[in-house]
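Please, structure for the following, as tokens.
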Amino acid sequence: MQRVVWAVLGIVLLAIGPIGVVHSAPPASSGTAAAGQGAGQAAGAAAISGVVSDEVTGRPIAGASVFLVTRDRASGQLQPLRLSMVTDARGRFVFLEASPKYAYTLSATHGGYEAGQYEGPNAPAGTRSERGASITVRDGEWLRDANILMRPVRPSSIGGRVVDERGEPVVAAAVRLFTTREVSGHDQLMPGSVTSTDDRGVYRVPVTAGRYYVAVLSVQATMPVSAADRPRDLALGGLVAFGRSAPPIDAGAVRGPGIDVDGRHRLVLSNFATPPPPGAGRPRAYAPVFFPAARDIGSAQAVEIEAGTTRADIDFRLEPVDAVTVSGRVTGQADAAVNMFLRLMRPGSEHLGFGSEVATTIVEPDGTFTFLRVPTGRYTLLASPAIVEAGSGGEGKLPPSVGYGSVQGLSRTYPGGAPSRMWWRSSAGAAVWGRMPVDVGAGDVADLDLPLHGTTTVRGRLVFDGPDPPDPNRRVNLMLEPANGDATLGVPNGWTDAGDDTYAFVAEGLQSGRYVPRIGFPRDWRVKSITAGGADLTATGFDGSIGTDFDDVVVTMTREGASLSGRVTDARGGMATGTVLLFPTDRAQWADYGLTPERLLSIGADADGAYAFTGVPDGEYYAIAVSGRQTRDWMETRFLDAAAALATRVSLVTGRTQTQDLRMSEVIVR
């Protein structure tokens, strides 16, 4: 067999002409090149070949440097020798010294392109994994079509021009991209990159391949003139660093820049288009608009972008609309709501963060509130002590809105490569919340009553079931995550006191919704059980809609659980370094698990294809091995539905180690 392979390769090499092959020198600490070659490649009796191509045009790339990197299949460690080669005029390369002793990865570089790598057979264009697919070979085997796609350095982008009703450029208008994705089993609109228009009204946002919604944001921010007398109670919109408060507002920021409307309230000018002058004696405003001219996401048109492509025609023409004043008072717990930040949001956007409001204001000392220049439409009026925004990444960030008294800013990342989230908590109105629909027509809306409800508090202690509990001298963080992923519910935190070996905690700020506890720090523990006053809350968590505090709570944490291990093989039976996904067979558990699920798990296989899960909660699960490029959105129900049809079912019980070998699968989501 080997003679046949080498004879065929000899004919191929004669046909394609010379290809430059370079054996790179090993690091000084690894011995001589000859020694490295003898240890790593002398047993080579197989070949790997392919073509390097432009991901956008499909044309072969001549002169690309291709690297074959070896990993010991037993230890997973990089070897001191790697082979490199320069592609010929047709973008082709071939390595003749592959060995079954090693697992390999293939990568390529070339001027004008991002580094590329071999992602495995049938990898869709545009996919990227951490280090590419693992390659294993048998004696005498010739692996053809180990092709590499390279993305041009020229980034994809979305751009256009924003003009007003007269066709004049709108300067410094905030433009933001949005995507949609699933969080905790529910589809959500996700904010991405944000930029502003230049003096020509032109904007441009670098993007990766994908589907985007583009919006010109416009927020009508109202501030009482009396706020100038209490500057340290409020925050001027400015970037909040993690863990630090925003700078306090100063008196000048309330008096100007802005528009004095009635002697008591000012329309503050900030990051958005300057409001238009009145028309026919009536106030007007620029409403937020989604491309091409929609007031909400439901009527918006998505912009499809492929790798290396540019859309510079996503233009907007802002048209002023009639605007009115919306006013009222808070009821129920007005004293606790002074200076509280209020937001008017379009339905479906309530979970979004700063900059996605249509109008904002604060509660005045007498319990009243006023929104100026509100465009006609249907809204949700929100009063919340916390704002949590999940983001799909991208460039630029919007600062907290004028009037938001931020005392905290935290950031965490969803598991599985999903987006990050930013959390702010306000010092004003920290113990109350409110929510109600508001319809705004042609006339002013007055005498609204916004009922406020007290937030729920959880008081209790943590119990660590197992050896090596956390050091009580280091504070432990218990996070209460909204089960349905709704960011408007916030993420209340409870910290233990340093030196307290009872691990007592108090978590404040639960609103009307269900919350599940998770350890924020240290993060290697999971919830085993929850009781409150003797009642078992393990399955339900904490429901803030009950309206009463939870006392005498015991949250028991554990590292123990079931174990699952095995090996991953590729389609040819060779060991593969894919990613193993583990998820419940009960479809109901694919949703409402908060932001960091405990039963949807993933782990990478090592260079020899071995994987191992430990500390898994008991239950019936599906297990499946996929390539790294398929793990970005794997927790979405569409992916799980398709994966379940290909997966292996396993039953896991604490104290028992289950062994299950898996064959790499390609999950096709339709």
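The first strand starts at residue 21 and ends at 23. The helical segments are 2-16, 33-40, 251-255, 637-644.
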